Amino acid sequence: MNNVVTCVYCGHEYPEGTPTSQATLLTEHIKTCEKHPMKQLRSALVGVIGVDGREGLEQLEITARTIPAVERDRIAVLNAVHALLDTLPEDKS
Ligand SMILES: [Zn+2]
Q: Per the count of CB atoms within 10 A, which of 18, 26, 41, 58 is most buried?
């Protein structure tokens, strides 16, 4: 039991001797870990802008760029959209 990789956020364990490198395993797990801070931050952000998924986010980006808005608000929306696009759980493109 000295080589088990454990997620520090949810306690998910990977068995010893997994062929894939442990760093890769954790990186992959973090994308789906419900307790990871990034996931929770993401959920909060989705709650704020009310959109998720590549299509919805890209649509919102176009809207934010085209409608008249206070520049500060526009930038805030675009930043949120980009943060969510960068952390999409699965990218099927
Ligand atoms: Zn986890």
A: 26
